[in-house]
Write a structure and sequence with these properties.
Structural class: alpha/beta
Number of strands: 13
Strand content: 15-25%
Number of helices: 12
CATH superfamily of the largest domain: Type I PLP-dependent aspartate aminotransferase-like (Major domain)
CATH class of the largest domain: Alpha Beta
Radius of gyration: 22 Å
Shape: globular
Largest sheet: 7 strands, mixed
CATH architecture of the largest domain: 3-Layer(aba) Sandwich
Mean pLDDT: 97
Bound molecules: pyridoxal-5'-phosphate
Length: about 375
């Protein structure tokens, strides 16, 4: 019921605190199955200070708009492109929807189809429903990467684009993006890379010497990339990223917004009014940590993943779904659902998905949290 009379701030805060006391927090070390993390203190500070900035009306906040542009430029450069076109958006879902929308609008075929791996994130189901684009699923190989031959078999005159995943949601697998890029070039079809998770991992992991395929704009067929700062970028939610190689993609999804206080602008994002503070926080985090800083974060996460995978292998009745590729470790056991339920009852923030439990080594996850988890796991498995 909408309250008739207001109450004192402290009373409101006390009531709210009570209501959300059961929420798991990242600093508890109990959240092991999320791609989000405890935001960096600098990012939190920026959000607090600049919470009023609206990138939906950039004529009012011209400085923030410039900072968003610079952020897109820095992300493009991380992804091997001198000048990219895009936005800081609400997350990977919006970024993927924008890419599909741009591919559909530039292809202009009557019955648009998008080819994507069976491992693709469910955001593409939303894109399909919203945009009237049929999804054509390509099968996976034994290593859970997309079967590129199957992708090729599924290309038709209606294909508006191909999707490759650089860091799948379930297993962190990186598809053979170079081979997908070759296909895209041969058939003249744009390739979208969903690096929502991997975008802030792969460049640094490669620099650390991990053997991972190229996945970005250095490959000619790649026309757009999703890269989410609110995952391994350590920026508060919401902060996703979409980068296009060419301006024409952004233009194809831009709508005139005539009435804004800051004058007429063109808007490509799904959201109208949108948080400027989060874009400022992405900018600040990139400036603050730099390539070296993110490399350190990724180094810890990758090493922890390999240690954890080794520990899991020593537990009878537990098996790895596959060796970790990025900082995600997924495993199965007999009676997985019972084990999941019991682990959740003990306060662990995990979920069983497609027949396995996925642990994401985000920056808030420490070895002692994993040791406690392993102890509980050994007690709950049959
Ligand atoms: C590969 C991939 N793409 C897209 C998304 C969607 O991102 P968001 O939840 O920020 O919308 C996710 C989320 O986990 C993801 O793993």
């Amino acid at each position: 019921m909408f309250p008739e009379k207001g109450v004192d701030e402290n009373e409101v805060l006390a009531e709210l605190e009570k209501k959300i006391e059961k929420d798991l927090t990242f600093d508890s070390g109990k959240i092991l199955g999320s791609m989000c993390t405890y935001p960096h203190p600098l990012a939190r500070r920026i959000i607090r200070e600049y919470i009023d900035r609206n990138l939906g009306d950039p004529g009012l906040h011209v400085g923030s708009r410039k900072v968003e542009e610079e952020t897109v430029e820095m992300l493009s450069s991380l992804l091997g492109l001198e000048k990219g076109y895009g936005h800081i958006v609400s997350g990977g879902t919006e970024a993927n929807i924008l890419a599909v929308r741009a591919f559909r609008n530039t292809a202009r075929v009557e019955k648009p189809e998008l080819i994507l791996p069976e491992s693709a994130h469910f955001s593409f189901l939303k894109a399909s429903d919203l945009l009237g684009v049929k999804l054509v699923w390509a099968g996976l190989k034994e290593d859970y990467s997309v079967d590129v031959d199957d992708v090729e078999d599924k290309i038709t005159d209606n294909t508006i684009g191909i999707v490759g995943i650089a860091g799948t949601t379930g297993l962190g697998v990186v598809d053979d993006i170079p081979a997908l890029s070759d296909l895209a070039v041969d058939y003249g079809i744009p390739l979208h890379v969903d690096a929502a998770f991997g975008g802030f991992v792969i460049p640094f992991a490669k620099a650390l010497g991990y053997d991972l395929p190229d996945f970005d704009f250095r490959l000619k067929g790649v026309q757009s990339i999703t890269i989410d700062p609110h995952k391994m970028g350590m920026v508060p939610i919401p902060a996703g990223g979409i980068i296009f190689r060419e301006k024409k993609f952004l233009e194809s999804i831009s709508i005139p917004a005539p009435y804004l206080a800051g004058g007429k602008v063109w808007q490509a994002t799904i959201t109208g009014t949108r948080p400027g503070a989060n874009a400022l926080a992405v900018w600040a985090m990139i400036k603050h940590l730099g390539f070296e800083g993110y490399k350190r974060v990724v180094k810890e996460a990758m090493e922890l993943s390999r240690w954890f995978a080794g520990e899991l292998k020593r537990i009878p009745g537990v098996y790895l779904i596959r060796e970790p590729v990025l900082n995600i470790v997924s495993f199965g056991t007999e009676n997985l659902e019972t084990a999941e339920e019991e682990l959740k009852r003990r306060g662990w923030g995990i979920s069983a998905h497609r027949g396995y439990i996925r642990i994401v080594m985000m920056p808030h996850v420490r070895r002692e949290h994993l040791e406690a988890f392993l102890g509980d796991l050994m007690e709950v498995i049959p």
